[in-house]
Design goal:
Blueprint lengths: L1 E3 L2 H9 L5 E6 L5 H13 L2 E6 L19 H11 L3 E3 L3 H4 L18 H4 L3 H16 L3 E5 L3 H13 L5 E5 L19 H22 L5 H11 L4 E9 L13 E9 L2 E8 L1
Parallel strand pairs: 1-4, 2-3, 2-5, 3-4, 5-6
Antiparallel strand pairs: 7-8, 8-9
Length: 273
């Protein structure tokens, strides 16, 4: 596995490859969710690359940038074991300089739900993703459905900026107990981890309720809140797959999203209906 820290060197390397490139951009602290993206990238492309970069511009003041889990040596080993062909490990100085252009998230889809709770977050996400996609030269880039709003915005950016890359959405990977895999799960102690299961249970309850024929989001939300008692719930949202809020479930076109705090740890999860 080749390792690069220079964007110029990495770009020169990838542009001379004769294979289609599958790209998995990450912030590290890799888990089975990331590995599933890598496996799919390897299956669908002749060459698989991964980046690890904890992007400072998507963190707000007072958020967990300084304590975000960093375990680079373990991540390098996981990439090697997963068969990654090349790994990009840029510094902040390599990616950003003072007073440079940036991408602004759309006012509607970029500044409600996650964008309302974390204003400016998606500006940072879209800016760094555009940079990484351009550096990578990838034909396909792989993102998980767990960050559903982020996924939609990245797809929209790629479409409206006429970027020559396919964004491939991949299913949420869960622990055996149902908890959606996340690098932030490392913040949870055993008691908090048990409490956090209420989030996925609420989503599974919503799915079961819809399966029984209930399509009213108000009634479904009531069922979900029964499961979420005891958690600090920031929002429960019902959207179609263009992230327009809905009052009635549209089968095969809806996403139900939850954000909640367990102790000081903020977790998000969703289910696609």
């Amino acid at each position: 596995m080749e390792i690069f820290k220079s964007a110029k060197d990495f770009r020169n390397y990838t542009k001379n490859l004769e294979h289609d490139i599958g790209f998995v951009p990450t912030m590290g602290a890799l888990h089975e969710g990331h590995i599933s993206l890598i496996k799919r990238a390897k299956e669908e492309n002749g060459f698989c690359i991964v980046s690890i970069f904890v992007n400072p511009t998507q963190f707000l003041a007072g958020e967990d940038l300084s304590k975000y889990p960093r375990r680079i040596e373990a991540d390098i080993k996981l990439c090697e074991l997963a068969g990654v062909d090349a790994l990009f490990l840029p510094t902040e100085e390599e990616i950003y300089e003072d007073d440079e252009p940036s991408i602004k998230a759309p006012k509607n889809t970029g500044y409600f739900l996650e964008g309302f709770v974390r204003p400016g977050h998606f500006d940072g996400v879209l800016t760094v993703v555009m940079k990484l996609l351009n550096i990578s030269g990838a034909k396909r880039a792989y993102f998980g459905q767990k960050d559903a709003q982020q996924l939609l915005l990245i797809k929209q950016m790629v479409d409206r900026y006429f970027m020559d890359v396919e964004i491939v959405e991949c299913p949420i990977i869960r622990e055996k107990d149902g908890l959606a895999m996340s690098s932030r799960n490392t913040y949870l102690d055993e008691r908090q981890k048990k409490a956090s299961l209420s989030i996925s249970k609420s989503l599974f309850a919503a799915g079961a309720t819809i399966g029984a024929g209930e399509l009213s989001t108000a009634n479904i939300e009531a069922k979900m809140r029964d499961e979420l008692k005891g958690l600090d719930v920031e929002y429960i949202a019902f959207c179609n797959r263009r992230f327009k809020q809905i009052e009635t479930i549209e089968l095969k076109n809806s996403i139900i999203l939850v954000a909640a705090r367990v102790g000081t740890t903020r977790l998000i999860d969703n289910i696609w209906i």
